[in-house]
Description:
The protein is mainly β and 328 residues long. It has a single domain (5-312), classed as Beta Barrel (Maltoporin, Chain A). It is 0% helix and 57% strand. It has strands at 10-17, 30-36, 43-53, 62-73, 76-87, 109-122, 128-141, 145-148, 159-162, 172-187, 190-204, 228-243, 252-269, 274-295, 298-305, 308-312. A hairpin with a 5-residue loop joins strand 6 and strand 7 (128-141).
Amino acid sequence: xxxxxxxxxxxxxxxxxxxxxxxxxxxxxxxxxxxxxxxxxxxxxxxxxxxxxxxxxxxxxxxxxxxxxxxxxxxxxxxxxxxxxxxxxxxxxxxxxxxxxxxxxxxxxxxxxxxxxxxxxxxxxxxxxxxxxxxxxxxxxxxxxxxxxxxxxxxxxxxxxxxxxxxxxxxxxxxxxxxxxxxxxxxxxxxxxxxxxxxxxxxxxxxxxxxxxxxxxxxxxxxxxxxxxxxxxxxxxxxxxxxxxxxxxxxxxxxxxxxxxxxxxxxxxxxxxxxxxxxxxxxxxxxxxxxxxxxxxxxxxxxxxxxxxxxxxxxxxxxxxxxxxxxx
Length: 328
């Protein structure tokens, strides 16, 4: 989240305490939802954002240009946003260049972001909504610096020096997602939500000569520099029905649904074109049901999550792509 211009389009943040069957066993403590903006006023609204930053060193300056457009007419609304961010290298309080994180850094980079959301309300009392969301984000390193490790024993921090590893490629993070969502707010006394989505993410990390990238058949041990590169393709379907005060009991809510996911990913070493981690082919079929009962200040939860998973070559380790809560 901190590495993208998503904050310009966040409408609100929801914090949901307690376990939720809809998010599986990984959400035992609760979930945080980032809800993207929608057009709420009739007519057109335009917002222009500009920013310039510097730490008063020649290579530290950066700037941002972004524009948001919102349109609403009767039952139709749309929200469009785009931004470009150019960042220089960063310095610490001692005017020393900060080290570039091997798992990715926003220093010395440029980022492009495009976001579009279209919605249409229909039905009696506008209790149904169809919504299409499209987003694309790409952050690319300018590749002007190489990482130089510090020395903890003498209090020397990591830093960055101008340079380029021969044969290496610029690190990047490229992500796009499309989501089609349907919601019925009065379906048999509850709220029905169904969405289909597809997402693609490709990431390339900094060049390193770490032990796990060495091969004596290619170069002497300790000298081989390579870059981890990940490609992940994910698609899924989700349906959920939530009914408050079910069985005419005040405070008792039922949530039930089905979550289908397919994820295909592979990880290679880009410079030598070697397979680094076995390809992953993962599918999940997860029906779930949850009862929540608010009794004064106390909330009781009872849930069942039948997650049937099938996968080949499940990868683990540093550089693995992480999942994030989708914005709606």
